[in-house]
Amino acid sequence: MRLRKATGVVLAGSLLALTGCMATGPGGSSDAVVFGTTGGAASEAFQKAWLLPFTEETGIPVVEDAPATMAKMLQSVDANAVTMDAILAVLSTPADANPALEELDYDIIDAAQFEDSPFKVRPQAVPFFVFSRVAAYNTELFPEGSEPTGFMDFFDTENFPGKRLMPAATSGWSGFLELALIHDGVPRDELYPLDVERALRVFEPVKADLDVMADDGECVTEVAAGEAAMGACYNGRTEIGKRDGLPIDIAWGNEMQWADYLFIPKGAKNKDKAMELIAYLVDKENNGRIADEIAYAPANPLAEVDPDGEWVNAIPGAGALEGELAPIVPDEEWWMENQAAVAERIAAWLQS
Q1: How many whole angstroms separate alpha carbon 177 and alpha carbon 56?
Q2: What is the fold of 132-257+321-351?
Q3: What does the pLDDT read at residue 1?
Q4: The CATH number, out of the four listed (3.60.15.10, 3.40.190.10, 3.40.50.720, 3.30.70.100), of the domain defined by the range 2-130+259-305
Q5: H helices then E strands: how many in the chain?
Q6: Beta carbons within 8 Å of 25's beta carbon, 6+ residues apart
Q7: In which residue ranges of the chain is pLDDT below 70?
Q8: For the CA atoms of 154, 165, 178, 115, what is the dihedral angle to 10 degrees?
Q9: What's the chain's Rg over C-alpha atoms?
Q10: Strand 248-263 vs strand 126-138: parallel, antiparallel, or unpaired?
Q11: In whole angstroms, what is the distance from residue 181 CA to residue 341 CA?
């Protein structure tokens, strides 16, 4: 990811004219690419950063189907009732020879641009954007000069007392097991396969201070209210809370980064146009625009972001530290194979 000076891409009049092509929902013209997204604030950001400019440049309309999930898409393939032409999702299912997914055309999509990315191009999936969990903390409990540096301080209850909010056990605590092992002296290049039992032993001394969230939406609210001193919150939600005047801020040490990927379901009606859309979204000339609209970072390492952009100081990597406090990027292959079993073990540990 690089910094750039932004230039105007779409005129206001063009945005207004194209809005009719961008309604959220699975319906629309048979010529339109149906793009499964998460909806919400991200939908507006996607439209401004990418989808409206794409339609203006190519003449191909895009209709969002939101909220869309990988499970919903896979069910549609099984039922031979595919409505989406492309979908964004985390890499929770194999994307090498998956019969539910189309092969991506890397004569159209420039895979070489991702050679230096921690998120790898796969035969049936390409990285799209990066999001992260950060150590959010209450600024009234830890004012300037006494604030934590990041997730490592989850283990320091003497200097940073109070509850720590953790993700649901179903996540397998991806990123947090790596954190515990790094804290216990395991070199980063020797983390995998993860020693789950050793990681849980590292958490044992602070177990009484861990609160597991039922919903990630609780994170910012509970930290800002002082019900928890720190929380594993999403970077964008934390920044929005801060801008809304809540007593919350980000400690960037060991931020945990993941990517959403782009897929084409098997049997997509507009596969060729979806391929063109995906090539546009991930190209270095376009991928960085998302940071102008929301606190996501481009997955393409060659993409540039505006150094004066509204969200540039809150996107993943914006406050990245080095050494032991450097960002953690969980190994996607290991977690795809082991997440269910690890989640079961963590649930049992929490009950013990």
Answers
A1: 45
A2: D-Maltodextrin-Binding Protein; domain 2 (3.40.190)
A3: 60
A4: 3.40.190.10
A5: 10, 11
A6: 63, 64, 65, 66
A7: 1-29
A8: -120
A9: 21
A10: antiparallel
A11: 18
